[in-house]
Amino acid sequence: MRKSLSNKLFASFLTVILLSLSMVGFISYFQASAELDKSSEKSIAQVIRSASYQTDLYLQNYEKASDSILSYNQVKEFLDMDPEDSFSYYQYTNDIQKYLFRSLFILYPQINLMYVIGEHGKAISDDNSYQAYSLQFHPQERYRFLNEHTPESGRITILNTNVMNEGDKNIITMVRRIRGVSSYRPKGIVAIEFKAEDLARIWEPLDLGQGGSYFIMDEFSKLLYRAEGNKNHPGLSAEQIQNVFQHPNDSVVEKVGGKEYLFVSRKSEYSKWQLVVSIPVSELRKPISTIRTTTLVVGALTLVGTLLLAIWFGRSITKPILILKEGMRETEKGKWRRLEMNGRQDELGGLMRSYNLMVTRLSEMIERVYEAELTTQKEALERHQAEFQALQLQINPHYLYNTLETIKCYAVVQDSDEITEIVEAMAFMLRYSIQTNLEEITIANELNHVLSYMTILKHRIGREFEIDVVIPPTLLLAKMVRLTLQPLIENIFQHAFPEGIEDRHYIRIDARIEGDRFLVLVEDNGVGMSRERLVKLREKLNLNQLADTEGDSFYHRGGIGLMNVHRRIQMVFGELYGLSVESVENEGTRLILSMPAE
Question: How far is CA 590 from CA 58, 472, 523, 583, in A?
Fold first, then answer.
């Protein structure tokens, strides 16, 4: 038996150790790999964002130069000129080259060439070396080509092209349409050419490692620029370039020349360029190799040491367990006796002492549990009673003040019987309200309370308003909770008719038995509630709490208020019952009191 238990302990330790080491190594390796990949991509993306921002600033300088050309009046007049008027063409050419282009070359020395082409086929151009190119390209063909790639909205388009059609110079052209003086319709093209190598100065500080590189693509997935510093970086195929282009603001892994590369790209909202950085995956994951080697070595050493410890532990624990097992076997036979300690001071000795102590204190603990449970129930009942009596005494002082003010006004203005009627109704309501007994009353009692309230309300609003009571006579003596019906009527008058009471308005009180429930329904055809307000009210009711005095006036005004009416019913009959609300905006509201039928 001892040998069997020892073998089981050894097998368990071996399984736990191997599983733990393998899971820790597996999770650590892949988690570290994923985190390093994310960190690398995040760092590269941050570098691209910074470089993209600097590139956009660089391109915006050329946009400012194009703005100067667009706002120059002679350029607009040139677009509206008669193409057969050679003298005017000479004057505009001389003026624009001398006063506009030369100034822009001074302000922006990076510009290689500028030209304006009208839809009439005439062009004015100048380069930074003071050699005009107006006669070295075909304006009409150039105009048609640029017009097809440039939007009419005047937005700038950046193309990898130049007037000389020399691809080896890697020229980039910024193009936008321009209108003349007499029409808002675009009537020409303005273009500024500059060398893509100027962008390299922005990207030179980047350290992309031994195998890293970067390149730029335009909005048509055409390669605009590629760094030439890394000669070992292989070229991309057309399909690979297209795949990278289709994942802007994302990362893609492509196999190039038998080696995996991570491509991280960001698309500029200004230039519509896609800036891409590529780094070999092997360089990114080089730290993972160190983690893997360290994990294997540490895991092997830990396994050997832990197995030796498991053997010693298994042999040392089986003997004391057999003693404890024998004692438990005697307990199973009904011999509830204390175990002999034999002077043990280790954990097993503590376990035996705890077992002996458990036997002597078990009965005491059970007795204390029962006493604590009875005390808790008594305190809960007392709190329940106090909460109910507090609800009984929640009478709206504003209503009493308004009523007394009404009585005062009648007393001053005239000597009439209305005062007597109001005072009698008020006295009945006060006597009915201040009773704090818990027994249920009948629906007839609640209707009498509502009648007294309507008597006072008649003098306050200055008109009669009759409530339709359609309760079957057999239900007038049905039981319900005190002070639950009048607050609903008062709430309707406060909220259902905000524009005043009209002849079409009504309030209807009904009652019925549905299954094991007794329902009292109060309906009106007032303004109702919006869906948001209804949802909020139902959420408040579901909380089964009293209304806060500083809460929403819709739930608390009207004396005891809707929330406390709901809670009073639950205190008497249980939380399965209470108040529910149905309402449709601009159609009316139905308040339903749910109580047990018996």
Answer: 68, 19, 4, 6
pLDDT for 344-396, tens place per residue?
666 666 776 776 676 566 556 656 776 777 777 765 665 566 456 555 555 45
Amino acid, single-letter form, for residue 225: Y
Give, rounded to a whole angstrom, the gap between the first and last alpha carbons of the chain. 67
- From 3, 1, 22, 13, select the one nearest 309 (Cα to Cα): 13
Specify the DSSP class assigned to residue 97.
Answer: I
Q: Which of 480, 518, 76, 35 is nearest to 291 (CA)?
A: 35
**Do 530 and 568 meet the contact criterion of CB atoms below 8 Å apart?**
no
CA-based nearest residue to 422, from 450, 460, 466:
460
Q: Tell me: the pLDDT tens digits for 110-146?
A: 788 888 998 888 888 888 775 555 446 788 888 888 8
Q: What SS3 string covers 451-495?
A: HHHHHHHHHHHCCCCCCEECCCHHHCCCEECCCCCHHHHHHHHHH
Output the CA angle 232-238-242, nearest 5 degrees: 110
Query: For residues 366 and 363, what is the distance between their CA atoms, to the nearest angstrom?
Result: 5
**Nearest alpha-carbon partner for 584 in 496, 491, 521:** 496
Beta bridge mates, 123: 117
Q: Cα separation of 332 and 316, whole Å?
A: 26
| Cα 341 → chain centroid | 62
The rounded distance, in Å, linking the Cα atoms of 41 and 54 is 20
